[in-house]
Structure formats: structure tokens, C-alpha cells
Amino acid sequence: MNTSSLPRIAVLATGGTIAGSAGDASKTAGYKAGVVGVDKLLDAVPALGTVARIHAEQIASIDSKDMSVALWTALASRVNELLAQDDIDGVVVTHGTDTLEETAYLLHLTVKHAKPVVLTAAMRPSTALSADGPLNLLNAVTVAASKDAAGKGVLVAFNNQIHCARDVTKTSTYAVDAFRSPETGVLGFVQDGRVEFQRTVVRPHTAASEFSVTDEWPMVEIVASYADASRVMVDALVAAGVRGIVVAGTGNGSMHATLTQALADAVRQGVAVVRASRVGSGHVMRNGAANDDALGSVSAGTLNAYKARVLLMLALASGVGDLQRVFDAY
To answer: Of residues 17, 97, 120, 250, which has the active-site annotation?
Structure first.
């Protein structure tokens, strides 16, 4: 087969379960994540050679629960460098499932190219019976090699489905179909080399985003509302110098009265407050379950608390004045 005409795809490995290993093939938990190198991941999928010419790099070897903003900076910078090269047609990032949705959204907002960027992962370690990583990797490269994937922002290919980085979230602790896009549904699917998109992405992203990767990340933390919530965490965060707080509220972003008062005090001290919901789907309406105008808070819309934190950090780092405009737009 003449492979010289195939797209050239960069595969950037960061660790995760897809690179995990256990001593027993029957074990799908209790493994060590991020110990299998990118070369072995690629060797396990010989069919990749029929889809693309692969350029591989090991960016990190971590369990994604330990993702850091420093690694986000390094990863986003490297993705942008590679996509700027004429001989790179797309990028695939292998990642752990725990924080994949956060990294994907970060890249969705800071990658500055229309070329495809696709994240993938696995729910079972590479040593497990019926490991899902190899097929997910093949499908991710297939999507990245597809001209139809260009201009759609950062994508997540998982369990034969293609998701928008903004919408996707992890919804199961064990199932191989762990990732869903609750409000909007999938963008399309990939199976047996076929890539089909069934809808497009309308919010600004990548080259149309006003945000760029930074190495000076403002401190933004997340608190939750629940029965008899206190103000202890909010007061401690303000004292620690936090720049922003995202609230995972009940229902439509509602908050316990004590927590609301603590957040109002935080706003008066210059802390940005964003209301999200802990529910898992739906949207948080401005001035709905809380009076944002009086409180000085921002509605996260359909973003969950973790993605709202990513957007708030980028907005604060860039000096955006109207935070509600940003959350309405992105």
C-alpha cells in the first residue's frame, strides 16, 4: 500500500487509563494509569497504518485526576505548534477520562487552527480483556484524518461517537459508553473507517475564540450547595486570595441562603462568582433561581461547574470585563 498520500496525524500521549496496566487481565479497576508509552499504544493498533502516517510524542504520563494547569499550558502550546506545520494534518490527544472534558474544553478555546484536534481515552486499561482503548484510538485518528472534521473545534471520539468538547461529560464510573453530551447529543459517529457528522457547532471556538493559552492562571475554585451548607469554604477561599468561585448549585443553580450571603460578600471583595448546577444537564438561567443582578454573579448557562471553571480562568487571565457576555457566547 502506498502510504505517502495518507494524512499525517500527530498523536500526543498524556497517560490515563488508555495507557494503564494491571497484573491481571480480568481487572478493570485497581490498575496503574499512564504507564504504557505511546509507542506501545500505537503498536497495539496496526490498522493505524492504513489510516494515517503517525507522528508520536509522549507529553506526559499521568493519571488524569492529577492534571495541572502547567500541563494544560504545555499541551495547548504544543498542539498549536504542530498544527502550524504544513506537514501535520491533525492532532489526536490520548488522555485519562477523569478530566478529559476539562482539557478538551480548554483546547477548544485556545487552539488557533481549523485542523482537527481529537481527544480519546479508555475506561479499561490496556491489559484488560476487551480493552476499549485500541479501537477508541483508531477511531480518533480516523476522525482527525477526515476533512469533514476540520473547522468543528476540538472533538472527543469515544465508543464510536463524536462529541463536541464543549458539550461532552463523563457520566459513568465504569461503562465503556461513559461519555455523553446530555443537552445537545453527539455530533456524529465513526465506525469501520466511516466518519459522519449529523450536526455542527455554532458557538465560537478555536480560531474564532478570543482566548489564548496562558502560563499565568488565576486561582478559581469550585464549591457546592447542599442541605445546611456553611460559608466556611467560601470564606477560606477568599482569605486565600482566590480570583473566582464557581458554584455547583442545586437545581437551576440555586444556593443555600448561608452560601448565598458568603458569595455576596466575596463579590464585594472583588471575587468573580459563577453559578452552575450540580444536576448534570439543563441550563442555569440568569436571574432565575438566584438574583444575579443583586448578587453580582454570572450564570454558567449549560456549562457544568468544571467547564465553567476553565472558561472563568481564561476570561480572568485575559482581563475580560463583561463575564456574562463571555458565558453567553462560549
So the answer is: 17
